[in-house]
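To illustrate the input format used throughout this study, we show a single complete record. The first block contains the structure-token representation of the backbone; no residue identities are included at this stage. The design step must infer an amino acid for every position from geometry alone.
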């Protein structure tokens, strides 16, 4: 049986580049699933891929819908028995002109609750030596959050606790109390911290068995990438292309052996970023 990889949010940007890189570097017996929430965009993305060795299959997957995530995981398990590579990359962008209280509902449903849905559904589907990566950011550390708020995301024991914290933050943004409490106005900061916190919570539960089986569960920071999501916020003169950013992530996925020090951590270019200041 060949290896099976799945990338969420793969119709453009980093997700598309990850599919293209995986297809090029895996073998002819392997399968890469290119997923997204819009059938037409999935088909267009699949058609525009550069030729690779692995087979690329299109799969409709909206991580904002719990049943869709669970059904996709079940379907792929029935089809393949297990998965080898899962990269959670789906992202709902926010623009500088957006009102946070108006956009945070869909934003957290995809970026945060979508992340925990993928973790719940696909972590149990990993085979031996498998990898599950959550694409986060350098902003996903407690360094960027006021100390008084650290306990909201630090050392949470379960994904349910992470979801509860995200929902509490979302409600505070919607009712206007978040800024008073000291939350950053830039939604990306608490969101990325919650994503990394989710990985840390699940890793705490699975560490022993995963390390015994050679499984890597981690969050990753790909560095600054020149995409439509980043351009409105950041200066792009030194940014990577999506293809450049995909390289180190695929290197990590196709590692020769598992470095236990990376397990459950936020990784940037092969190095662990400290969770706490």
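Output of the design step:
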């Amino acid at each position: 049986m060949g290896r099976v990889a799945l990338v969420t949010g793969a119709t453009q940007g980093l997700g598309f580049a990850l599919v293209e890189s995986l297809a090029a570097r895996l073998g002819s017996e392997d399968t890469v699933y290119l997923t997204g929430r819009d059938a037409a965009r999935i088909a267009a993305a699949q058609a525009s891929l550069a030729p690779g060795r692995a087979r690329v299959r299109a799969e409709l997957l909206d991580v904002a819908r719990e049943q869709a995530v669970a059904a996709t995981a079940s379907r792929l398990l029935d089809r393949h028995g297990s998965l080898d590579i899962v990269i959670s990359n789906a992202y709902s962008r926010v623009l500088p002109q957006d009102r946070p209280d108006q956009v945070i509902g869909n934003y957290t449903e995809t970026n945060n609750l979508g992340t925990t849905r993928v973790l719940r559904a696909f972590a149990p589907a990993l085979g031996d030596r498998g990898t599950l990566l959550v694409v986060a950011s350098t902003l996903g550390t407690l360094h960027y959050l006021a100390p008084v708020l650290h306990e909201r995301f630090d050392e949470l024991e379960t994904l349910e606790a992470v979801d509860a914290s995200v929902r509490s933050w979302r409600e505070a943004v919607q009712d206007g109390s978040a800024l008073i409490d000291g939350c950053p106005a830039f939604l990306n900061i608490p969101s990325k911290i919650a994503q990394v916190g989710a990985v840390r919570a699940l890793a705490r539960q699975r560490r022993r068995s995963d390390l015994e089986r050679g499984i890597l569960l981690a969050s990753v920071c790909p560095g600054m990438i020149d995409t439509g999501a980043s351009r409105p916020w950041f200066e792009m003169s030194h940014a990577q292309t999506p293809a450049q950013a995909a390289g180190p992530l695929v290197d990590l996925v196709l590692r020769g052996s598992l470095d236990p020090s990376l397990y459950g951590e936020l990784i940037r270019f092969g190095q662990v970023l400290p969770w706490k200041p």
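Structural context for interpreting the output: The chain has nine helices and eight strands. The chain has a mean pLDDT of 96.
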